[in-house]
Amino acid sequence: MKVQTTIRIEEDKLKQSKEILKNLGLNFSEAVNLFVNMVVNTKGIPFELKLNDEILKRIEDIENNKNLEETSINELKCLN
Fold first, then answer.
1. Short-list 39, 76, 40, 41, CA closest to 57
2. pTM for this structure?
């Protein structure tokens, strides 16, 4: 049985991805289903996730109570 879900995505990224997927012969829903199937089949994210050196340094600083200025999650996202 299929269920409907809602996700929040930045509008410009959604538009860009839909155009790319269209050129690949897929719609957005089909692509999301492919991703979900790959998560199940691989029992994880179906691509490599990496932390860059800046994020690792900030994590280390937090663990050592150093340089604890406020950093938003959006700032960290921009580091990838």
1. 76
2. 0.61
